[in-house]
Design goal:
This protein is mainly alpha-helical. It has one domain. It is built from six helices and no strands. Helix 1 packs antiparallel against helix 6, helix 2 runs parallel beside helix 4 and helix 3 crosses helix 5. It is elongated.
């Protein structure tokens, strides 16, 4: 991973931690926080693409944002009570960074991130149930989307 990618990954990780804390406590992902995450990633990746002589990677980033955001938007449209709007919005910056890191392999990387997020959330739910907490009415899915994206970007 080049230094510019490491800086973008650190930016994303810091915002994922902050967003996860908010989501776990209030079951909301505030739009301004998600927007700042996205703006920072666009700025950092644009600078890296221009200075590194690979402006085409920004097209992959756009494709990743559209793919992940569009995928979760479709899920929300099909099952509105199953996924929050904040999760859909969060998928855009996560998809951006996945697309930037994965390039043409973004479809596989996006699907891998989504499957990982679902597995993390399922394990969290099962562990909570085993500890006697019962099944909560709602699940904060943002932390799991973020953790999965950080992993996928780190290994891509």
């Amino acid at each position: 991973m080049d230094p510019a990618q490491a800086v973008a990954l650190a930016w994303m990780t810091l915002w994922i931690v902050a967003l996860s804390i908010v989501d776990l406590h209030g079951r909301r992902l505030p739009d301004p926080m998600v927007a700042i995450l996205l703006a920072g990633l666009v700025f950092l990746d644009a600078a890296a693409a221009v200075s590194g002589g690979r402006p085409g990677s920004l097209l992959w980033a756009c494709a990743g944002a559209l793919a992940y955001g569009g995928l979760l938007f479709t899920v929300r449209e099909l099952a509105p009570s199953g996924l929050g709007g904040g999760d859909v919005k969060l998928a855009v910056p996560l998809g951006w960074q996945i697309g930037f890191a994965a390039g043409g392999g973004f479809p596989t990387a996006v699907l891998t991130a989504l499957v990982l997020a679902c597995l993390f959330a399922l394990v969290w739910q099962v562990l909570g149930r085993l500890r006697g907490h019962g099944w909560p009415q709602t699940l904060a899915f943002g932390p799991w989307l973020g953790a999965a994206a950080v992993i996928v970007v780190s290994i891509t």
